[in-house]
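Appendix B. One record, verbatim.
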Amino acid sequence: MERRIISLYGDNSKDVLEATLDKLNSEQLKAFVVDAIRTSSTDPVQLTKALCFGSPVEKSRGLERRKAVFHDVLDCVNDETQGDKTCGDVVGVLMMEVDAFPVEQLAELCDYFLGKIKAGEVANGRCLELFPKVLSSIQWMPNVPLVGDCSGQMTGAAYKSHMINKVCSCKWSSGVVIHLAAMFRDVTMTTEELRFVLEKVVRMLDGITLTELPPLVYQLLLLANKGHKRLVLDGLCTYFSKLDKQSMTDDTGKDLQAEAPADLRPTQGTVILHITFAAKQDQELGREFVKTLKVCQQRSSSSVLSPFVLALALSLARIRRFEEPVFEILTSAISRSYRDAEKRKMSRWAYETSPVVSNIASLLMDVCRLTGWEHVMQGLVQLGFLLMDSNTPKSTGFCADTPQRQTCALGSQVLLETFKVHDAVRADILQQILNRIVVKTSSSAEHYLDLLTAAAVHSPQTLLDSLPKVREAFDYLSYLPLSSAIGLLRSVQPLMNLSASLKDSLILVLRKALFSREVESRKVGLAGFLLLLRKLKVLGGCVPCSQASQPWSASQIQVEVHSQVRPSGHEALCLDILGNIRRCMTQQMVIRKMLYQGLYHVLVANPELRTSVLDLLRRQLELYYIADAHQASPVSLESCFTMSGDVAKCNEPVGDLLLAVQSCLEQCLHWLDTAEDDDVTADERTIIDKTQKMVSGIVRRLQKCELEDFDLDKSAEYSTATSVGAKNHMSAGLVWVSTRLL
C-alpha cells in the first residue's frame, strides 16, 4: 500500500490519492509512517510528502489526517534510536507543510511541543526543529485562539511571546536543556524574550552533568550572538567560580566542601576553548568579558582570581586586541590583593571589616599545574614576566614582605612552576629570562638570575638544548654589571660539567673580557675565572703555578677536563686559568685587589690548588719584597707607584697582597700539619717554606720600622691638594694597612 501511495503522489493523482487515504484508518497510517522511518522499507520522505499531498486542509478529514501524520512523524522522530539524516529530511518535509495549517492547528502544535517539554519526553532535538517554524508562522497571524483551559484570543506576536514564556516557566529535565537551547537559536525573539530565555538556560547550568556543559555553553554562545553577551559571561563565570570554590581547600588541607570531580578541569578547558573561539569570531564578546573583569576587579579582586576566570582571561589575552586590557586588570587585581592582605595584617579594624583575601599564590600554582590547558600556558608565562617586570626590586629601601616584593616573587613562582610542569613553554621562558638579564644593565636583575638558577637546577637538559641562546648571552657578558655577570655565571655553572663546548665558549669570552680596555669588563672576566676556579674541583695533587704559564690549547683542555678515566682532569683547565689571571697582576689596582681577595676563596673552595695559588701570590710579593735584612723597610713602597708627570698613581695594593699571602699561608700550614708525609711533595714543601720565611721576615722587620724608614716624616706634607702630598698620603695609607693586617 505504501508503494501505491507514493506512486499516486508521483503521478500527481491527488483525487485518487485522497480517496485511497480516506479508506485507511489512523492506525494503518501510523503503521505506514513508523515502518517507513524505522525500517526504510519505503522512502519515508516521499511517503510523508504523499500523505500531506493527499490530505488537503480545506476538508475536515484531510485536516485531521494531516494533523495525525504530523503527530505520528514527530513521535517517531523523537525516538532516540533513529538516524539523524533520515529524521532531518522528514522534519524538513513537515516544515514546508506547516504554513498550510490554519491558525487553530498551529496553536495545537504549539501545545503539543509544550506538553512534550513539560513531560520531559524530548529524547533528541529533531522533533523540536519544527517548533521555531510553527512559532514563526503563528506570529504573523492577526488573531490566535487560545486552546486548553484558557479562552479568548491574542495577536500572533503576543501568542508567540506567551508560548516562549510558558516554555521557559515550566520545569526542564536535564536531558532537554541542550536541545531547547539549540531550538531557541532559530526563534525570532525580542530583546526581552531573549533575555528571559538566556536567564533560564543559565539557571539550568546547575542541573546538568559536567560532560553536558561544553555543548550547552556552545549553544549559549550562539544564542548570545543575538544579544546579552554579558549576561551569559557573568552566568558562566559565576557558575564555574562556584565550582572552583567547592574544590578549594583551607590552609590545613581539609576540604571545605566536596572535592571537585576529576573531569572538572577538562570540562573548564573545553569551555574556555569555546569562549575563546567565539571571541575571535565576535570581538564584541571579548569586549564584554573585559568589562565584566573590570567590574569584578573594582568590586573584589578575589572574584577575578578564581581559576576559571583567570584561565579564561589568560586565554583571551592571546587575542592581540584584548592582550593589554586583560593583563592590566589581572596585574592590578593581584597587586590589590597583596595590598589588601597587608592592610588586614596591619589594622585590626581592616581585619574585621574587609573580606578575606584569597591565597593568590596557591591559586596560580594550581593553574600552573593543570594539564590539558596548553592554550592558557602562554598567557600564564606572559603574566609571570609582567609581574616581575612591573615590580622589579630596588637596590635600596626594598623590604622582603612588601606587596611589591610579594608580587614579584609570585611572578617568579609562576614561571618556575610552569617551567617544571610544561615542556612546551620551557624554551620560551628561558629565552625571555636571558633577554631580560642581558638588557637589565641599569636595574637589578637578581630576581631573574634566581629564576634562571632554579630552572637550571631543575632541568639542565633544557638549557643544554638551548646552548645557542646561552652562548649568545655570554657574548654580552662583558657589558653587564658585575653583579649580573657573576649571577649569570653562577646560574649556568651546573652546565659546565655537562657541556665541553659551552665551557670552552665561556673561557674564550672571559679571556676576551679580561684583556679588554674597559675596567668593568676586566672585572667581569676576572670574576668569571675566579668562579670557575672555585667550582672546578681538582681531585688529584696539583703542580706549582710556574707551569701555569705553559700554553694550553682548547682541544687539550677539552680532553683533559672531560676524560672519564683521569680523576684530576680539571687540573689542566685550572692551570690555564691561573696563567690567564696572572696577567691581572700588571693591571689596575682595583683589578689586583679583586684578584687577591678572590684567590683566598679559591684556595678554600678548591684545596688542591693551594700551593699553586700560594706560589702565584709569593712571586708577586717578591717584586716588592726587600730581601736585604740590613734595610729596615721590608717592602719597597716606591715600586708600588708609577709617576705620570708630577702625579703619582698607586698600582699595587700591597696591604691586600700581604693579607692574601698570609691567609693562604695559614691554610697551607694547617694542611701541612695534618697531612701524611707521603702526601706532601718536595715542591709543595719548598713553596710553603719560602713563603713562610718571607712573611716572617716582613712581620719581624715591620715591628721595628719607623715612618722615616719609608721616607715618611711626621712633618712631611700629606695634603692631597699637591702631588707630593698626595703621594705621601697614599704611602702612609699603604704602611698603615700593611702593619694593621700583619
